[in-house]
Amino acid sequence: MLALHHQTRRCGVNFREKVLNTESYLAERFPVEKLNYASMVEKKEVPVHRLSWAYYLGGLALFFFMIQMVTGLLLLFYYQPTVSDAHASVEFITEHVPGGALVRNLHAWCSSAMIAAVMVHLLTAFAMKAFGKPREVTWVTGVLLLGITFGLGFTGYLLPWHQIAVNATKIGLQSIEEVGNYLPGQLSTLPTLLKEIIQGEATVGQATLSRFFALHVIILPLSIVMLLGLHLFSVQIHGMSQGIDEAPKRTEKFFPTFFLKDLTVWGVAFMVLYVISVCVPFESLYSYPLFEPFNPKGSTPDGIKPEWYFYFVYYPLEILPFWVILLGSMIGGAVLLFTPWIFKNTSRRTLRVLAAAAAVYLVVMTLFGEKIYHLFKG
Amino acid sequence: MADAFLFVGLPYLALVVCIAGSIWKLRHAGFAATSRSSQFLESRQLLWGSAPWHIGILVILLGHLVALFLPGVWSSLMTLPGVLLAVETIGIACSLLAIAGMTMLIVRRLTSARVQAVTTVVDLVVVALLLAQVVLGLLTAISFRYGAAWSTGTVVPYFWSLFTLRPDMTYVADFPTLFKLHIVGAWLILLALPFTRLIHLLSVPFQYLFRAPQLVIWNTARRRQQAVTATVQAESRRDFLKGAAGVTAATGLLSVGVLEKGFNYFKGPRPDLEAESALLGKKLQRLQQTAEERSLELERQRSAMILVARYAELQETKGRYFIDYVMAPGLAFKGRDGVPIVLSAKCTHLGCTVGSEVDAQGRVLCPCHVSYFSVTTGEPHAGAPAKLPLPVLGWALVDAAGKVVLSRKPGGGVEGNSEPALLAQCSLYITKPGGAA
């Protein structure tokens, strides 16, 4: 009896210890005592050093996201998500609605800009070890945001319902089915089922368009807004990460100095984006037949490929066996998600080298992917 | 005779004297070509006199000048009752403001001993003349309402007749005395301009807006410190004002742009009849295409056989597209032996639609990832991205009487009579997988 009593007491102590540990863990990640004007605005400072430019990238991505929301809402006033009307309504926006071409162009160019900003943001945050304790939450939400941003790119690509859009989506979804070849027995049909659930029917059609529309316009943006809330909250409450190993010699006030600089960067970015959108229709980079309305009965035209930001996985997919890519992307995703724990004790120097290597890979695959592909496939 | 002098002689005299005199004055007097400042001597009354006077008189003068030099714009504006009323109200309010200000200035000149010390007789004549001129104008405006409208047909042509050197008095001859006095007053002021403090009209210090503030200081340590503080304050105020003006202008421009674009975007296009009918035509065509696809789908669910083509339409070198039972594209060819070849055209790699042109080696190409498929077997070439052959579909050749002449089930062989003469009369159908054909 006594022994039993003793045991429950020990158990209780252990349990209490665990609760206390969890509490202190959470308290460190969410230091609510800093939740006041003085520490979030008045005292917040930004280190000044040779990597300081990277502090602007997150804000830039946020700015691009805001542009996307505004232009996207504008497009919603005219876009019609049906197989028969989608292409015609997009054409109507571009050719007839006053300022419609500009709005659509802004939306298209800005999506690329947003993804580029997010990717560079990830690389620099990695190189600066901005995921170190207590910023794990910031990193993980950031990686999830990256995933959603890619999702937005993929779903948005289908909406105009032209040849390249539908065919690229078909190919993208088909690669889910490919996974089935590597699964044993009954499991091998699961990916096909998954693909058809995403698609809504046997082939890419009206059901797919409706689903992608809902995803692109409601579900993914809402998820972004929610995750972004958490992301920005943790950025703001922990302040900017130091970014370099030695203590920074100089800092500047977040408000107003850094904030005004941030606004300046936004202004310049908007001007560049605006000028590009006015001058260069983003379709001009492809040949026209790809932008004809999707024709389910004809043959697939030449030159179907995804947007540039998928090249880094698309061209290797073309060259290497599927399982290599599958394994690689699974490992890559896991590493990204668990970076704060995997690279806990890695020096910033090593991280910078790794980030530079990743950057080189991304740039080479994006710019020269097609040439490399032809090199391998003749 | 008096009229001829007052309305033709006096004006030319005034204009010539004003122009020549001003040039002479500005060339010879330099910085002295302005009004003598009395701000040091007395500043409180000056503020309450000078500010209302200058604001009021500038607005009125501007109205007069616009009416005089842009009569077309002005009179078309005055045809709008709202604008006319607004102009009348603003004009009368401003002349009252100017009269009040000028009264204050005259009282100041007459009561302040310090100001009296720097006042000349000419100054008093000028202020009296100005006050009289504004009062005359106000009285005219009240006795003969809507002068803003009627003056364009009467006074403006008179002025233009003077400017174009074809003086015409007929317009002014019948004016009421009150208004004649107002016009004569204007010429007198013009005449006096070069020789009085009125010359400051021509030396408005616009550059004050852009130069650094200059402070007059007394040279003691305390005063110097005060001056430094004042300079710092003035500089920072100027910087703030400049910034605020810039931001306001930018915001204004931006909102005008955004409003204009936004308004037109939501208003939408107003296509003309031709464009509208073209748009409608296109929409209808797309709807018909969709309807066609839907009916194909329904047909595939209901019927056991679906027509692909007449046998005579099949070719060896170019396939004929159709939609198979799973709503995927299919291709039909004529084989070398005359027996039809019917394949799915959905690439077994990633689902693109295979091309229909048969090359010299009897293959069709999937353009997406370059897989060549043999037409006869459906097999991809060695090393192609696609690993599986294109599936062979079940088909039947049916003659005009509805009798199956030749058929093939998926996985099975060709059954029936393949005599060419017979086949030429037939049509090619695909048969439902699993169904009885």
User: Percent of residues of chain B in helical segments?
Assistant: 40-55%
Radius of gyration of chain B: 48 Å
Major sheet attributes of chain A: 2 strands, antiparallel
User: What letter string, H or E per element, gives the SSE order of chain A?
Assistant: HHEHHHHHHHEHHHHH
User: What is the SS-derived class of chain B?
Assistant: alpha+beta
Strand residue percentage of chain A: under 5%
Low-pLDDT runs of 5+ residues of chain B are: none
Sheet with most strands: strand arrangement of chain B:
1-10-7-8-9
**Tally of DSSP β-strands of chain B:** 10
- Helical proportion of chain A, percent range: 55-70%
Q: Structural class of chain A, please?
A: mainly alpha
Q: Mind explaining what this structure looks like?
A:
The complex is a heterodimer of chains A (378) and B (437). Chain A is mainly α and 378 residues long. Chain A has helices at 2-29, 37-42, 55-76, 86-95, 100-127, 136-158, 163-178, 190-199, 206-238, 254-279, 311-319, 322-337, 339-342, 348-377; strands at residues 45-48, 250-253. Chain A has a two-stranded antiparallel ribbon. The model of chain A has no long low-confidence stretch (mean pLDDT 89). Helix content of chain B is 55%, strand content 11%. Chain B has helices at residues 2-29, 44-69, 71-78, 81-111, 113-117, 121-143, 147-163, 170-173, 177-192, 221-267, 273-302, 420-423, and strands at 305-310, 320-323, 329-334, 340-344, 363-366, 371-374, 395-398, 404-408, 414-416, 427-431. The model of chain B has no long low-confidence stretch (mean pLDDT 86). The chains are: A mainly alpha (378), B alpha+beta (437). Chain A binds chain B through residues 74, 77-78, 82-85, 87-88, 92, 96-100, 102-103, 167, 170-171, 174-175, 178, 202-203, 293, 296-302, 304, 318, 377, and chain B through 261, 264-269, 271, 275, 279, 282-283, 286-287, 289-290, 293, 321-323, 326-329, 345, 349-356, 366-370, 385.
